[in-house]
Amino acid sequence: MLTFNFTPCPTLSTERLTLRPLTSADAPALFAMRADPEVMQYIPRPLATTVADAAALIEAMNEGMSRNELLNWGIARHTSDEIIGTIGFYRVQPENHRAEIGYLLHPSQQGQGLMQEAVAAALEYGFEVLQLHSVEGVIDPRNEASARVLLRAGFVQEGLFRQNGFWNGQFQDTAYYSLRCPASR
Questions:
Q1: Are 18 and 84 in contact (CB under 8 A)?
Q2: What is the pTM of this model?
Q3: E strands of the chain, at which residues?
Q4: Domain 12-133, CATH 3.40.1080.10 — does that match?
Q5: Pairwise CA distance, residues 183 & 165, whole Å
Q6: Domain extents in the chain
Q7: Cα separations (Å) of 146 from 94, 110, 176?
Q8: Backbone angles phi, psi at 39, to 5 degrees
Q9: Are 160 and 175 in contact (CB under 8 A)?
């Protein structure tokens, strides 16, 4: 079984991005994304209604990191400290050497390859530093942009669960993607 220590949260750097710990100062930017119906369209979570909602989410994620249950970064361009998205490992399973990757990006930043860059950095950290054996991506199958990000990163679709979740008065399908550590392929 793996042993994780997510405190302190590492900062990662790519060609254009910094993946860094979220702080309470990020609450307004996170609120702007979590309150946006376009951003949250395929994420079965309620829209944030106040900046305090976003601040509480940041606090909850940071508490989860202190318990080594998840690892979450804010995504910022090198040219600004304001976050434009988030990415992280959730549903961490130390006994299975596995975690789920999740991410979101502000609509104004989409279509520029930024999430692909962030995913590559997170996966490198997950496989090389955390020693994960595999990472899963769990998405709404209607989210074609997210599916493209996963496929470009080397994930393969492992399954489609039909109407396995209930959200906003409707049953929802869930697509499961998986990527094994390059060293174990």
A1: no
A2: 0.95
A3: 12-13, 17-20, 71-77, 83-93, 98-105, 134-139, 156-167, 170-180
A4: no
A5: 34
A6: 12-133
A7: 25, 11, 12
A8: -65, -40
A9: yes
